Amino acid sequence: MSLFSTNSLNFGTSLPSVDCKVYFTPPNGEEEIRCIQLNGFSRCDFVHLRFRIIDLFPILRDHDFVLHWKDEEGDKIKISSNEDLLILLNRGSFRAKKIYVTLTEQKGYPSINILNSGPVVHNGVTCDGCQQNPLQGYRYKCIVCPDFDLCINCEKSEKIHSHHPMIRFPVPLTSETFFSNEYESIRNNVNGILQMFT
After folding, report:
1. Which chain positions lie within coiled-coil regions (predicted)?
2. Model pTM?
3. Of 112, 141, 118, 140, which Cα lies nearest the Cα of 50?
4. Backbone angles phi, psi at 192, to 5 degrees
5. Which of 197, 171, 166 is nearest to 183 (CA)?
6. Over its length of 198 residues, how does the chain's per-residue pLDDT go in tens digits?
7. In whole angstroms, what is the distance from residue 112 CA to residue 168 CA?
8. Measuring CA to CA, which residue among 135, 128, 134, 144 is closest to residue 183?
9. DSSP-assigned states of every residue in 35-74
């Protein structure tokens, strides 16, 4: 599933990648250790990480689970946001980051399996093509313009704003503050490249 739409430029791999070891013990099973690499723009996206882990261990589609890592003192540090993930990824060691998956019986934990829970809603976002508010389904955000979003239907029409690259968001953003820093960096890179061709 690509982060960028078909009429976009691929700047998602311009940021350093991070290797992670993911540890999980299924019910009545032996511990499994799998490796993943978090690349580019999505490397600090907690929701993206959860999807990647569900892909590694399909049993998690039907269960609630929590993620954590262990510090030097052996304390379990919970990962439940982009900021929590960023703290782990910014730790000094260049070795693979260890992430532990634990099943939980806590029914109130928010489900990440949005594929079976109806259309995704991006609260506070309006499609600048058809004015759908809130925008539902995939959200396409312009990399060049400071505030321009399209729904999947308007983006696919290729008649609206097709002259600029767009980033696709399959899930709502969990932190506009985190996003704005990364987004501004990508926008600046794109604008610099586009100026070379004009």
Report:
1. none
2. 0.49
3. 112
4. -65, -40
5. 166
6. 334 433 434 444 456 788 899 999 988 789 999 999 888 666 778 888 888 898 898 888 777 889 999 988 999 999 988 888 888 888 876 788 999 999 885 334 344 444 444 578 888 899 999 999 999 888 898 888 888 999 989 988 888 888 888 888 877 775 554 455 555 666 666 666 656 555
7. 18
8. 144
9. EEEE-GGGGG-HHHHHHHHHHH-GGGGGS-EEEEEE-TT-
In the 8-state DSSP scheme, what is residue 160? S
- Residue 63 neighbours by CB distance under 10 Å: 16
Count the residues in the chain: 198
The owner of tokens 């070795």 is 95
Degrees (nearest 5) of the Cα angle 70, 75, 79? 55
Q: How would you classify residue 131: left for phi > 0, otherwise alpha for psi between -120 and 50, otherwise beta?
A: left
Q: How far apart are CA 165 and CA 26, in angstroms?
A: 41
